[in-house]
Design a protein that fits this description.
single chain; 941 residues; alpha/beta; Aspartate Aminotransferase, domain 2; Aspartate Aminotransferase, domain 1; seven-stranded mixed β-sheet; four-stranded antiparallel β-sheet
Length: 941
Amino acid sequence: MTPFVNRHIGPTARDVDAMVRRVGHDSLDAMMRAAVPAGIRTAGEVDLDAVGTSEQDTLLGLRELAAQNVPGVAMIGLGYHPTVTPPVIRRNVLEDPSWYTAYTPYQPEISQGRLEALLNYQTMVGDLTGLPTANSSLLDEGTAAAEAMTLIRRAVRGRDDAPVVVDEGLHPQTIAVIATRAEALGIDLVMADLRDGLPVQDCGGAIIAYPRSDGAVTDPRDVIEATHAAGGLAVVVADPLALVLLASPGSLGADVAVGSSQRFGVPMFYGGPHAGYMAVRAGLERHLPGRLVGVSVDGAGRPAYRLALQTREQHIRREKATSNICTAQVLLAVTASMYAVYHGAEGLRQIAEHTHARAARLADGLSAGGIDLVSAEFFDTVVARVPGRADQVVAAARRAGVHLRLVDADHVGVTTAETTTDADLESVWSAFGVPGAPASGASRLPETLLRTDRILTHPVFSDHRSETQMLRYLKKLSDRDYALDRGMIPLGSCTMKLNATAEMEPISYPGFADLHPFVPAEDARGYITLIDRLESWLASVTGYAGVSIQPNAGSQGELAGLLAIRAYHRSRGDVGRTVCLIPSSAHGTNAASAVMAGMSVVVVRSTDDGEVDLDDLRAQCEKHADDLAAIMVTYPSTHGVYEHGITELCEVVHAHGGQVYVDGANLNALVGHARPGEFGGDVSHLNLHKTFCIPHGGGGPGVGPVAVAAHLLPFLPSHPLHPDPERREGIGAISAAPFGSAGILPIPYAYIEMMGADGLTEATSVAVLSANYVAARLRDAYPVLYTGAGGLVAHECILDLRGLTKSAGLTIDDVAKRLIDYGFHAPTMSFPVPGTLMIEPTESEDLAELDRFCDAMLAIRAEIDQLVAGDLDPDDNVLVNAPHTARELLEWSHPYSVADGVFPAGSTDDKYWPPVGRIDQAYGDRNLTCSCPPIEAFSES
């Protein structure tokens, strides 16, 4: 194995020996043989051409791949634009582990920095769109528009049969994603050029381009009014930079606005990751998909941020969820929000005016040269008519290092950006064969649609003008959070492991960061080679025939896999197979994804020991023999055990005509030891942000590729603008870009190459060992709820605190918040079983950190025992008051000592201090505030 393997895996060889003995086995291999059922163990080694290279050689290879890409000057448009990421933001957000290794802010007391940044994002979006409530990001513009379509279905009650009108002026990839979702859900779409008005008298809603993909800026008010008259909701898809100069969708009467915030400082990344946005008018807040940051108060009455409303309800609602909770791009939303903080309203106006002035000057030069333009009024995109010679123009520009959009044989599109220079315009004029006569660059925006109201008026967008102020603001926010750079995040179900710097570094290489997703294939050779290899490696690891990297989140991978199953059945004439069986222990996302794929959810019971009840499974399969489409099963189970009945489960479902979807969320317990494609799976999604080291970024980005058996290969995601013509037709686009979040694929590529097959197998073994070590140390204090063969768990374990907390008059929250005082992020609370903690230590935590966590849990157990014995005040004790803040030291009034409260056993001088106390969730829902509160709110408290 390479030295990198020993860097990635925390415990040393000596530590592993000690841990194995504590678990009750003679060797690591013996423990894995006992844990993994013999019937699913892989027959041979993982076949990878990555043999485990050094960090230096891996980085050299990635530099060579990046050099094979030709970013040039990207003037293609279509929703992707060159932008300048201010270096202070690039270095201190995108490249800073205190931001990119954080987890989703479900524990708000230790996520205040990230939550403030996201609230800034929501405020920015709300200001630009003129709508009061925005969510904290979606995956991209295409999926945001599709989410808006499903919002229409939810919000317009009793109108399920009413069509949704879609503007032909939307970007083609946005239309493609909408169409994929609509087909699965049975939503009737009416395509129309909405410049000609609404084509129907009755509709559920309309999705309107503003500006259009061809650049034209047209007044949407008549269509909005007609949509309302038809009983529907009006959705406007808008470019946020254009909205700096143009009237907001809200002021024009829109109900919903969606789009992408990519051009606010986020590199193009060959298509992603980028933060989509959505904002809604008053009354539609509870229909918002994804996550919503709100303002509440802590125990001292101070303002504090937390996830609001339906954000916390999505998993609970399962098949009734309004969306999949995983649809977010937090790290990119933070970057976009900080771009607005850095530039402020005046800076954004200068950037927007520069972008528009370059487009206007470009148009003047083309017109002076006799070139006919499609639109007279536009923001940043000019489409020129060049009958029969569009290919020649695009080719000439490419020879000059400029990428233009080939619209068709007669039209060429050119889009300007904040980076566009006069030299770029000269190159474009030359490609068109015109001299580029002196041009005025006078505004081409319609006078009736100019923005007149102020934006970004909150002080946060004007207080950080200097580099020093901006640097300190970013540092202040990151210090308020807890991420992997501080310590262990022992969450079950979401693997939080090392995201090595060598894996992260290549995403900043210009050849990877600055490439437009729709450049010709020959200018993306490095990316295409990387993606082909990565897809091949993932297929080998999982035992499947093929992989598509397009889904840009685990939620999207789930949807893609289910759509593949649906398409397969339909190709065989089995259109009635629409039932999806889901075990009661499954991730809540599974049920939500099944509904989004047009399936009906039927729950299969679990046995008392946490496994799928095979008797109930047989009964449900018999009952649904004619309409069974699939089962979604997580393996190892969500209860943290290797179920011995998995092969029988697959056989039963197959015997009744169904397909087996193996949720890859827990693949970190399988790699190198078992392959889902070999033990009965037909399709799986993989979480590259878990098993394969893409960092969680505070709740996104992620990548959820879908892996399928040979018979499902024809039903992998397609894309109308895919560089491979053979992959342009199929079941449809899942994400806006052909390869989804391609910009972060160098991370798992580097991880797999540096680990090699043996290293990946070792990582799995140590991850399982670490979970069993924690279980062995804690089981006498906290019952381990589920175990498999020989009393072993898989890569995570569930501690049952229900009896303890009940006897002490506590809640599971009290234990979770007390862990903060000991310097830890809490494990997963009350999932999949209420009143429990799910712990997943991963292979990356060393033995000292594992022991520190176990010591903290044992100390908390002693505190619980004191409370039960009556030695602590039941209403004023270290548990119910946790977490304790530094501010409390000023007016300490508790019956226990300061040492017991804030420096419990095991604390160090490097103690993490939460910036707020226990947050009142109910208060925040009763008093919904989802944009930046005034500064006075903090000073008054």
